[in-house]
């Protein structure tokens, strides 16, 4: 088990986005300290950590909500200084949070185009091009392998996995080059989590760079190409899939030695003794 060198190896794919030794503090609280990671086209970078590990702060830096207090943030190898999530979105970096910013009572196609509706006509007489919107949504979902029964149905009637898939397809349609997914499988059962992982693979295979934030190594390992582990705002290392097993990943995240100590403390001991 060997962590990836922070310097880009010779011949390695160029990164769509990269953070180097990023740090962030809020008052006297160190939220992130010397964290580095790379996101490449056609790869899934998994960011793992328990509650309070620094995952949310890292997401907010990547999405343009916060600027790092130290270190560098690069997009396509060039330093970036975002002042808002809109700046990041304009560069093709789309962040999908757990609430997905969807309106449950609106149809699938209305949610898909919310805020970016296709229009017919000119000037004050422009109107929503409903037929085109429905056609585009059907085609985009089909191209991602997503089977939605009826694009007119309220998005609130979809399963959690289906809603996640619609959000992913929407981001791809509007030009995302990097998808940042905030715990997309955390509230889902095994079957629905599998649905979401398949759509993440679809986005990866279309050449997007994906950042998959999760606390579940069993969801991360099958889909991930590289793994960044965080603990109390610090990096425990960034590993390629060839450099770490699922068991090692789980042990690192669970705090190996601490878990063994806890198991010993909870043990009933030898009943015969």
Number of strands: 12
The CATH class of the domain at 15-102 and 176-266: Alpha Beta
Q: Overall mean pLDDT score?
A: 85
Count every helix, treating DSSP H or I runs of 4 or more residues as helices.
9
Based on Cα principal axes, name the global outline: globular
User: Roughly how many Å is the radius of gyration?
Assistant: 21 Å
Named at the architecture level, the CATH assignment of the domain at 15-102 and 176-266 is 3-Layer(aba) Sandwich
Organism: Streptosporangium subroseum
Domain ABC transporter: 17-257
Protein name: Simple sugar transport system ATP-binding protein
GO molecular function: ATP binding; ATP hydrolysis activity
